[in-house]
Structure formats: structure tokens, C-alpha cells
Specification:
Blueprint lengths: L4 E8 L21 H6 L4 H4 L1 E10 L6 H16 L5 E5 L5 H11 L6 E4 L12 H12 L9 E5 L2 E4 L4 E2 L8 E2 L7 E4 L2 E4 L24 E5 L7 H8 L4 E6 L7 H12 L3 E6 L14 H4 L2 E2 L5 H11 L6 H10 L1
Parallel strand pairs: 1-2, 1-3, 3-4, 4-5, 11-12, 12-13, 13-14
Antiparallel strand pairs: 5-6, 6-9, 7-8, 9-10
The structure holds glutamine.
Length: 330
């Protein structure tokens, strides 16, 4: 029987982490090569014809736009050349949700792409990496994972990449989708989908970045009580193309930062109001009059994901009305 061909693209993270003791103290993430990760998963060769490639080997706190561009390019190439039916990406958990959303918007093929990682290093007691990798391969081998953007498979839950958020710093159930819940479950080599995201992804977005080696520069400024405008002023001086505000409540800004945002907009910088609150959406014309101030809103994207959509949006248009539509669509 022909098994589905699954390519594992390794980027680093705790799943490739190594340490001298059985706990998590003083381990190094992104230390082990892809072949060691595959060798640690018994039975993986019964569900798919596996091959592996090392894209990077970093803790995902060191994930970069350059690695995202490289990953996107390689994924599109693999599907174009029919080198694999599905792809699994191993990745640190710190920025896994950002990579998942970025690739959901930029990969041009509907084949399954599943991202996973672990909370315990490969050398740790009861390491969760092999089980998460096994489950991710099961999802990537499933027809049902077609065209769903990048799926994040972790601790037997599966999430739409757009919706996944790291909500625990150390627990094994590190991810959840606070606005929508998971889209399914994976266990005992089986996958069950019970939800589907209606947000557009893959080739249903205009974000074809083939051939680009740079993206617009978008920064995030998170606010708090009595926050000065230092961060926004610094971003204006470093000539960013866009600023996402991790605003208060429904994306609110205090007076000092409202004045700084007016300055940024006068310089042609696109400013998007998001929120530091973990659930709910930022709505137009609540306490802030966006039409008057010149801002757009993130809908329900976190500041770090709104930054990704604004970065990609700015590759297509600088028109604020169009950019705002993107936030309601993708
Ligand atoms: N559990 C993890 O993967 C966190 C380790 C590391 N900081 C990373 O994100 O790669």
C-alpha cells in the first residue's frame, strides 16, 4: 500500500532541545538534528513515507522574517514539484503561532501543513516531542487537513494557525484558541475535525510573496497605565512602515500615545489598533474615532498576529480601506 509522503521541516525549538538533566533546567533548544527527532518516534514509518530537512535550528525566540521567507519558499517548492503530499514543521513554541499564521497566509497550495513542537526537551523525562510529532504526521497525512491553512497540532488538540495562542509558559497543554476553541482532536493515530475556520487562507489570499526577500517593517507597541509615547516615537524615528498598538481594552490609547499616533500617521505610517486583552475583538468607532484619527483595527487578531497581516497587507496596498478589509477577511 502506498503511504502518503510527508516531509518534516525542522526549525529548532524545545522539541530539538537537549540538556544534561532529566528536567528542564538549563537545556538548550534547537540542539538536535532532524534525524534524531524522527528516530525517537516509534511507528512513524507505518503512517507515512517520511523524509526530513533542516531549515534552521533555533529557539523560536530567535525566529526571523528571513526564516519565514525561506520556509514559505521551500514549502511552495515542495508542493509544486510534488516532493511530498503534506508537510510537518517542527518549531519552538514561543513564536509557533506567528509562524503558523504567516504561512497560512502565504503558502500557495492546499496540501496539509501542520506545525508542532514540545514543552519538554528531547532529553527530558516524559518528553512530549515524539507524541506531538507522531500526531502532527497523522494530521498531515489526512485528506481532511487540505486547505485549512497551517494547522497547529499540540497535546492531542488541533487548532487553526490563525486562532492558536500560547497560553501557558510551561504546561504541556501550552496552546489554546481563546476566541474559537480547537478545530479537532488527534489521538491513537486518528484525527477528528469538528470545526472549520471560515477565514481565508492559502491561495485565497493575495499574499503571494514569491521572489521577495524582504517584507515591510511593522512594529508593535504595547500600552499600560500611564504609558509614555517613548516606544511609538522611537518607531517613528526608525522609519517603520506600520505600527500595531497592543492597546488597552477595546484597543484604547491614552492621551500621550494618541498624540504620538497622530504624528506617525502624518508621516504616512499605517497604525492598527489591536488589544493586549487575550480575547474579543477591537471594534471600529468605540471610544476611538478611527475615521478621525486615521487608524485601522485588528478585529480579533492579537498584536503579534496583526503585525503579520499588516506586514503582508503592505506588500499589496497602502490603501487604509483595503487594509482594513484584509483584517475582516483573513
Ligand atoms: N517549549 C518551547 O519550545 C520553548 C523553547 C524555546 N524558547 C522556543 O520557543 O523554541
Amino acid at each position: 500500500q502506498d503511504l502518503p509522503k510527508i516531509k518534516i521541516l525542522a526549525t529548532g525549538g524545545t522539541i530539538a532541545g537537549s540538556g544534561a538533566s532529566a528536567d528542564r533546567s538549563a537545556y538548550t533548544s534547537g540542539a538536535l538534528p532532524i534525524k534524531d527527532l524522527i528516530a525517537a518516534v516509534p511507528g512513524i514509518d507505518k503512517i507515512a513515507d517520511i523524509s526530513g530537512e533542516q531549515i534552521s535550528n533555533v529557539g523560536s525566540q530567535d525566529m526571523t522574517v528571513d526564516i519565514w521567507i525561506k520556509l514559505n519558499k521551500r514549502i511552495n517548492e515542495i508542493f509544486k514539484n510534488q516532493e511530498a503530499d503534506g508537510i510537518v514543521i517542527t518549531h519552538g513554541t514561543d513564536t509557533q503561532e506567528e509562524t503558523a499564521y504567516f504561512l497560512s497566509l502565504t503558502v500557495r497550495y492546499d496540501n496539509p501543513v501542520v506545525i508542532t513542537g514540545s514543552m519538554r526537551p528531547a532529553t527530558g523525562i516524559s518528553a512530549d516531542g515524539p507524541k506531538n510529532l507522531y500526531d502532527a504526521v497523522v494530521v498531515a497525512a489526512s485528506e481532511k487537513a487540505q486547505g485549512a491553512g497551517v494547522i497547529l497540532a499540540f497535546n492531542e488538540n488541533i487548532f487553526a494557525g490563525r486562532e492558536a495562542v500560547k497560553t501557558s509558559t510551561t504546561h504541556l497543554n501550552a496552546f489554546s484558541a481563546p476566541n474559537t476553541g480547537p478545530i479537532g482532536q488527534v489521538y491513537d493515530g486518528k484525527v477528528v475535525f469538528h470545526e472549520k475556520t471560515l477565514r481565508k487562507s492559502n491561495k485565497n489570499t493575495p499574499f503571494d510573496i514569491t521572489g521577495k526577500d524582504k517584507l515591510p517593517n511593522v512594529a508593535v507597541a504595547t500600552l499600560y497605565a500611564d504609558a509614555p509615547a517613548t516606544a511609538i516615537d522611537a518607531y517613528i524615528n526608525s522609519n517603520v512602515n506600520g505600527i500595531v498598538i497592543g492597546g488597552l481594552g477595546n484597543g484604547n490609547l491614552n492621551k500621550a500615545n494618541t498624540a504620538a499616533v497622530e504624528k506617525a500617521i502624518a508621516k504616512g505610517i499605517i497604525v492598527c489598533r489591536a488589544s493586549r486583552v487575550p480575547t474579543g475583538r477591537v471594534t471600529l468607532l468605540d471610544e476611538t474615532d478611527d475615521a478621525k484619527l486615521g487608524t485601522i483595527v485588528s478585529d480579533d487578531l492579537s498584536p503579534q498576529k496583526a503585525r503579520i497581516l499588516l506586514m503582508l497587507g503592505l506588500t499589496v496596498t497602502k490603501d487604509k480601506k483595503k487594509l482594513q478589509e484584509f483584517f475582516f477577511e483573513y
